[in-house]
């Protein structure tokens, strides 16, 4: 298929509640939305780069630059029959995985629609709904946190993740654990600690956590392997796993025992599939991470999470946990068993709502032949 038109948008959407992590507070979520047109068909993609280089070095501005100057010109006017073609076209370029994955998602949507198949079917999904949890940001104090946790449990979430940072960790986890002794609970540090903080993790080790996510630096594997040696609780890596090769090396040195897969972070769904396959063969559980996606990115996450290796609940909450108004329909809702249905329509299986998209667009550019 010849790629005829690519549209790039920078969008900003107000979050239902501020989201605080060890790298900052977000009231709005920025991302890029991509639209690819070919032979009367349209594909949509979402690039998860945010307004600050807090989670990743990429931002909406770096992603805009790399997409408009390099990635879009590499495919515009070219034939793309399969995702490997896209990968080849970008073969000379390094890094910028979030940008790379945004355009790749639009191509997956387009190619799946041409085949009349859902993305989940194309990726090899095996289930119709996937278990999900909720990721809760840092709160004012432990009492407020316990309150927020109970509200999400009330709403039907059966697995909770709480964000931690130095000084806001052991007391918080103990408070939640005391109120909810049997709750499947995990923590995410977003790389805020060093090996000097081993005592913090030894305390958390007694709290029956499902896993401890990304305690140490985003570009580290070695120190994580040292930390894991001190702990019973599995370390799960997020930021540090930017490719299947990183996943292989992390498993080889026991830097983690669980892997969070985000298609954006690894440069696309194709690489996410490779991480999944590797972990699945090794018997290492994986789960689908989230980046506060709009309905577009969330649809892709649900498709990915329907693969057989995703045995732990994903950070894929219902639409109303994130946005009062979304840019795609239908909205995702939580089933009574803390699952969300995997879309079954062709491609991503969601429809973009033009006027909703228009309302949140800050900047738009159209690239044509
Ligand atoms: O580290 O998992 C993370 C959101 C933005 C950036 C990084 C992370 C997160 C979350 C939210 O934890 C997950 C979600 O989308 O619900
Ligand atoms: Mg994380």
Task: Report the top-level CATH class of the largest domain.
Answer: Alpha Beta
User: How many strands?
Assistant: 15
Helix content, binned percent:
25-40%
N-C termini distance: 14 Å
- Count of domain modules: 2
Shape: globular
Number of helices: 12
How does this model look, in words?
The chain is an alpha/beta fold and 369 residues long. 35% of the residues lie in helices and 22% in strands. The radius of gyration is 20 Å and the shape is globular. The longest helix has 19 residues, at 97-115. The protein has helices at residues 60-75, 83-89, 97-115, 119-123, 142-155, 170-179, 198-204, 222-230, 244-252, 269-282, 295-305, 354-360, and strands spanning 5-21, 24-38, 41-47, 129-131, 134-136, 160-163, 185-188, 212-213, 235-237, 258-261, 286-288, 328-329, 339-341, 351-352, 361-368. Helix 10 links the parallel strand 10 (258-261) and strand 11. The strands form 4 sheets. The chain has a 7-stranded parallel sheet with strand order 5-6-7-8-9-10-11. Helix 1 packs across helix 3 (97-115), helix 5 (142-155) packs across helix 6 and helix 9 runs parallel beside helix 10 (269-282). The protein has 2 domains: 5-116 and 350-368, 2-Layer Sandwich (Enolase-like, domain 1); 121-341, TIM Barrel. It starts with a strand and ends with a strand. It contains 12 helices and 15 strands. The protein binds 2-succinylbenzoate and magnesium ion.
Produce a short descriptive summary.
It contains twelve helices and 15 strands. By secondary structure, the protein is of the alpha/beta class.
């Amino acid at each position: 298929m010849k790629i005829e038109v690519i549209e790039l948008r920078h969008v900003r959407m107000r979050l239902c509640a501020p989201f605080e992590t060890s790298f900052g507070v977000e009231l709005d979520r920025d991302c890029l939305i991509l639209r690819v047109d070919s032979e009367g068909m349209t594909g949509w993609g979402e690039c998860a780069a945010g307004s600050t280089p807090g989670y990743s070095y990429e931002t909406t501005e770096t992603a805009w630059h790399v997409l408009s100057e390099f990635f879009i010109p590499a495919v515009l006017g070219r034939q793309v029959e399969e995702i490997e073609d896209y990968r080849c076209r970008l073969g000379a370029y390094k890094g910028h995985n979030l940008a790379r994955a945004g355009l790749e998602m639009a191509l997956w949507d387009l190619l799946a629609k041409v085949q009349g198949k859902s993305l989940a079917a194309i990726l090899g999904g095996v289930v119709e709904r996937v278990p999900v949890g909720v990721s809760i940001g840092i709160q004012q104090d432990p009492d407020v946190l316990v309150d927020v946790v109970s509200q999400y449990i009330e709403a039907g979430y059966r697995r909770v993740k709480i964000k931690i940072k130095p000084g806001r960790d052991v007391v918080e986890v103990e408070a939640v654990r005391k109120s909810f002794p049997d709750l499947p609970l995990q923590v995410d540090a977003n790389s805020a600690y060093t090996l000097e903080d081993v005592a913090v993790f030894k305390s958390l080790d007694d709290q029956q956590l499902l896993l401890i996510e990304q305690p140490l630096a985003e570009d580290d594997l070695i120190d994580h392997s040292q930390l894991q040696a001190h702990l019973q609780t599995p370390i799960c890596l997020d930021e540090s796993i930017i490719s299947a090769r990183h996943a292989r090396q992390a498993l080889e040195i026991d830097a983690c025992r669980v892997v969070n897969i985000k298609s954006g972070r690894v440069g696309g769904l194709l690489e996410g599939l490779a991480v999944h396959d590797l972990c699945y063969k090794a018997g290492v559980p994986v789960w689908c991470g989230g980046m506060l996606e709009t309905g577009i990115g969330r649809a892709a996450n649900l498709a990915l999470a329907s693969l057989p290796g995703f045995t732990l609940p994903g950070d894929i909450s219902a639409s109303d946990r994130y946005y009062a108004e979304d840019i795609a329909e239908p909205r995702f809702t939580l089933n009574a068993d803390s699952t969300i249905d995997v879309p079954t329509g062709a491609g991503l299986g969601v429809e973009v709502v033009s006027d909703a998209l228009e309302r949140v667009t800050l900047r738009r550019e159209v690239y044509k032949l």
